[in-house]
Specification:
This protein has 2 helices and 6 strands; from the N terminus they run αβββββαβ. By secondary structure, the protein is mainly beta. It has one domain: RlpA-like domain (Barwin-like endoglucanases), CATH 2.40.40. The protein has a 6-stranded mixed beta barrel. It starts with 5 loop residues before the first helix and ends with a strand.
Length: 106
């Protein structure tokens, strides 16, 4: 029994790393307007429309988001959440959190 290389984990639609949140109202990379009150997120490579469960490692709270944008583009971060999603996992005040994510459909 060995560890799964990070590249395989990412390819399978799961990973861990940093998360941040944003509340812009500009258009997303998918063409829809960003709505901070919806449960959406940005990921560098997952297909638009993919649903992902994101869990805050510090408090165990989870949220399901839909990928509708690209990012984050900051080293060490794996996902950017809408303000509503960040609120549900208790990371609005801190601005960032250590999370794990898992694709639940694509």
């Amino acid at each position: 029994m060995g560890l799964i290389p990070a590249s395989e984990t990412q390819a399978a639609g799961a990973g861990c790393g940093g998360a941040s949140w944003y509340a812009l109202t500009s258009k997303t990379a998918s063409g829809e307007r960003m709505n901070p009150s919806r449960l959406t997120a940005a990921h560098r490579s997952l297909k638009f429309g993919t649903k992902v469960q994101v869990t805050n490692k510090r408090n165990g709270k989870s949220v399901v988001v839909r990928i509708n944008d690209r990012g984050p583009f900051i080293r060490g971060r794996v996902i950017d959440l809408s303000k509503a999603a960040a609120s549900q996992i208790g990371m609005v005040r801190s601005g960032t959190a250590s999370v794990c994510y898992q694709v639940i459909n694509s």
